[in-house]
Amino acid sequence: MGDKPGDFGHLLENVVFTELKRRNHSVAIGKLYTREIDFVATDSSGVSYYQVATSVLSVGALERELNLLQSIPDNYPKYLLTLDEVGTGSHKGIEQINVIDWLLQG
Questions:
Q1: H or E element: which one contains 37?
Q2: Could you tell me which CATH class the domain 7-105 is placed in?
């Protein structure tokens, strides 16, 4: 990925993608209207949606990420993975999880 500024978010997405594959998920990129859902993961238990962000602590970032996931018209699990250590938990059914904790769960 190189060492250009801004590459860290893409590296984090690659880590999540690789881990989902390691956990035996079929992984695709989702599209909702003109916006992109980072990962739609499917395994024997069903479908899950994942958004990955380095942080959602800046003004509007959390709302932007949650709005996309809330717009998905089904009830499959939805996750927001970040490096943030504060603000994790449930946001109207969307689980925000520290990505390091998520990686250690697998």
A1: strand 35-43
A2: alpha beta
